[in-house]
């Protein structure tokens, strides 16, 4: 019988439970989100780190081959051009492990979500420069 993993009680426990090779990346994602939304509440939701302020902001999770980033569907649509290099679905993005993580994009998406939640007009996303 397969042993059921215990749900971590906070983000520190979640990160500590991940393989050592990606802990620094997860800590940096958390730092970027905290810096962008310093008043957001941290918690574990759906067994992954979640940030909330006037509703859900963003979630992230570690998997074998990628880090999932969950900024809700409106963000995926709004930042579609910037997210084009990554695998996406309705409300999720996959950042491959071993490739550079787009921390600035995570920052901009988090700021967008925060502005939406606070009811402020959101700044239009900066489009990625095309070569």
Please give a quick description of this structure.
This protein is α+β, with helices and mostly antiparallel strands and 131 residues long. It is 38% helix and 21% strand.
* Spans of at least 5 consecutive residues with low confidence: none
Multimeric status of the protein:
single chain
Number of helices: 5
Estimated structural class:
alpha+beta
Task: Kindly report the average pLDDT value.
Answer: 90
Radius of gyration based on Cα positions: 15 Å
Write down the secondary-structure element order.
HHEEEEHHEEH
Overall 3D shape: globular
Largest sheet: 6 strands, antiparallel
Question: Proportion of β residues?
Answer: 15-25%
Strand segment count:
6
Q: Alpha-carbon distance between the termini?
A: 53 Å
Strand adjacency order, main sheet: 1-2-3-4-6-5
- Give helix % range: 25-40%
């Amino acid at each position: 019988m397969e042993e059921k993993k215990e749900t971590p009680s906070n983000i520190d426990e979640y990160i500590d439970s991940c393989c050592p090779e990606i802990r620094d990346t997860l800590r940096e994602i958390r730092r970027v989100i905290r810096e962008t939304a310093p008043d957001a509440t941290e918690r574990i939701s759906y067994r992954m780190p979640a940030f909330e302020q006037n509703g859900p902001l963003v979630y992230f999770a570690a998997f074998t081959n990628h880090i999932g980033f969950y900024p809700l569907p409106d963000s995926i649509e709004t930042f579609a051009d910037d997210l084009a290099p990554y695998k996406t679905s309705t409300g999720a993005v996959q950042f491959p492990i071993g490739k550079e993580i787009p921390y600035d994009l995570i920052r901009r998406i988090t700021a967008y979500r925060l502005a939406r939640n606070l009811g402020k007009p959101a700044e239009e996303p900066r489009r990625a420069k095309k070569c």
